[in-house]
Description:
This protein is α/β, with parallel strands linked by helices. Helix content is 40%, strand content 16%. The chain has twelve helices and eight strands. Strands 3-2-1-4-5-7-6-8 form an eight-stranded mixed β-sheet, covered by helices on one side. The protein is globular and about 50 Å long. It starts with 17 loop residues before the first helix and ends with a strand. The relative contact order is 0.15.
Amino acid sequence: MAKNNTPLRYPGGKQKLAPFIMEILSCNSITDNYAEPFAGGAGVAIELLLNKKIKNIHLNDSDIGIYAFWHCVKNENEKLCRNITTASLTIEEWKRRKYIIQHPQDYDLFELGYSVFYLNRCNRSGVLSAGVIGGLSQSGNYKMDARFPRNELIRRVEAIGLFAESISITNMDAEVYIQDYVSHLSSNTLVYLDPPYYYKSKALYLNSYENNDHLELSLSIKNNIKQPWVLSYDAVSEIINLYSDRRYFIYDLQYSASRSYIGKEIFIFGDHVEIPTKSRLQNIQSALELITSDSLSI
């Protein structure tokens, strides 16, 4: 699984965690549905689908631009690939795509979705609000095409398109999605939630959460999700306190948004989830270079 399969570069992308989520699916005999209320780059979901570990993935994102991108992948796959082939990697085009993202109400879903993809591939660390790689003068060591390998991106988009019938996409607030959509999925479903970080989210996402948003989300998860669920967050005291009544463990994960560093994250488990044995967890952690700390509650 060394090769990325999601076309998006995403802050805090969790594709490395796919083997761990696969282990959760296996331990709980889940094969039907996998849902992400905060889809973003959907790295884990795409890995599960392409490796045929799950039959259907359900992607939701409250950001209309992210939703529009996945709409393009699912419903206008060939057109998206043509646009990637002919993409004009110039500052003039970058400015046009930035304008479209800033005025989403004036454009159709394809133009918006492709513009999100364009800036995601051309901006520093894939952050839509960041500047273009190489700067407006294109005088940096890397230019705006540094993360735009056309053939590889087309491969990823086409590969996902083959599974279009197995992908459901929605554009809903996460709490509404949990209450109105997830509630209708079968018990043979794993819900994986990866909300915006408690800290630094404003610098990474167009849609960030305030303290009360994290509180309301925790109540919604605990009260409304009846299927097995897993939640990942930055391991800060505020989040640990919100979920202190649930099983969890803290681990180290390397990030590359803006700069490379090791951050501590927390995995929290719903009451209906069977967790892999510690020995199996350690094997997975070793493979992914994830190291659990002494702070365990599982």
